[in-house]
Amino acid sequence: MKVPDLKVGKRLFVGEGQPISLGIGPLEIRGSAFIEGPTVTGVPPFPFVYATHMVGPCANSDMLFPPIVPGALAIFPGGGGGNSSPYSAAVSGGQATFGNLDTSGHVVAGIDLNAQGDVYCYNAFKAPRIHALSLKKDLPFDMPHPNKKGWRLRHVCIEGPEIAVYCRGRVPADGIINLPTFWDGLVNPEDMTISLTPIGCWQELFVKEKRWGKQIVVANNAGGPINADYYIVARRLDDDLVVEYEGESYEDYPGGNEGYSFNFEANYVEGLIRDMVNEKVEKIEEEQK
């Protein structure tokens, strides 16, 4: 059956189900929709049911130019309809993915690309395959340089029970390791862990001296040459991390959560939404009594 324009004043449901994320009772979201799926938008190049929602290039001849709809999902023609944009979908707001993100084309991130799963790119940068580990570039810190005016520092975080930084490399032939210049004013020079790995043969290596928090002097007790790698971890001066604390959620953290970012599994977020919605519904019902 073919019908003219159809206007839905409140919510649209296609199939069976009613996701809690669309609200309950007085908290129902106007203009929302639920489609059980699968669905196809644009040209259907998919030979089988590839995903719940499949988006292809637009082939609608009525669309002579891309719509200007800020904050909405815009489907652009891919070589047809008077538009040569290579994109099948554009999202002007944030986009979140709770599973793996697989793409056979390029990934272009204008601001941030945050993923709780894995990101696989089969064509990006002409590389056969790039695998970006989740949550690593998502948690950087960017700060003024501690001793170079007009410069900044950016590090990505490794996981551990302290706020620390590291450096690594090959021990110079003279045994003098020059620590990064930006460590001055950033780390505690008295709280460093130094690991030495001999290369080629066993060497009686040891840390002979720590100079002013700027250099590490390595020596060979047997008097031979030094051929080794080093790995140094240092605790930051502003390390105030509380590793274990009593509480039911991150909000109970005794040091406060300003400056921290968090990543949650999808089912945990769904539980938070459900609890919040139920709490608001109960409050409204109580006020109406």
Number of strands: 17
- Name the helix and strand elements from N-terminus to C-terminus, one letter apiece: EEEEEEEEEEEEEEEEEH
Largest sheet, order of strands side by side?
Answer: 7-8-9
Distance between the termini: 46 Å
Number of helices: 1
Low-confidence stretches: 67-84, 124-136
**Shape estimate:** elongated
Helix- and strand-based class? Answer: mainly beta
Rg over CA atoms? 28 Å
What portion of residues belong to β-strands? 25-35%
- Average pLDDT figure: 75
Oligomer: single chain
The main sheet comes to:
3 strands, mixed
Portion of residues within helices:
under 10%
Helix-strand blueprint:
Layout: E1 11-14, E2 32-35, E3 39-41, E4 53-55, E5 73-74, E6 90-91, E7 101-103, E8 119-121, E9 130-132, E10 140-144, E11 152-156, E12 164-170, E13 176-178, E14 187-198, E15 205-211, E16 215-220, E17 228-236, H1 266-288
What's this, in brief?
This protein is mainly beta and 289 residues long. It has one helix at 266-288; strands at 11-14, 32-35, 39-41, 53-55, 73-74, 90-91, 101-103, 119-121, 130-132, 140-144, 152-156, 164-170, 176-178, 187-198, 205-211, 215-220, 228-236.
Task: Give an account of the 3D structure.
With 289 residues, this protein is mainly beta. Among the domains are: 94-138, no CATH class; 140-236. Helices cover 8% and strands 28% of the residues. It is built from one helix and 17 strands. It has one helix spanning 266-288, and strands at residues 11-14, 32-35, 39-41, 53-55, 73-74, 90-91, 101-103, 119-121, 130-132, 140-144, 152-156, 164-170, 176-178, 187-198, 205-211, 215-220, 228-236. The strands form seven sheets. It has a three-stranded mixed sheet with strand order 7-8-9, with no helix packed on it. Strands 12-17-14 form a three-stranded antiparallel sheet, with no helix packed on it. The longest helix is centred in the C-terminal third of the chain and has 23 residues, at 266-288. It is elongated. Mean pLDDT is 75; it is low at 67-84 and 124-136.
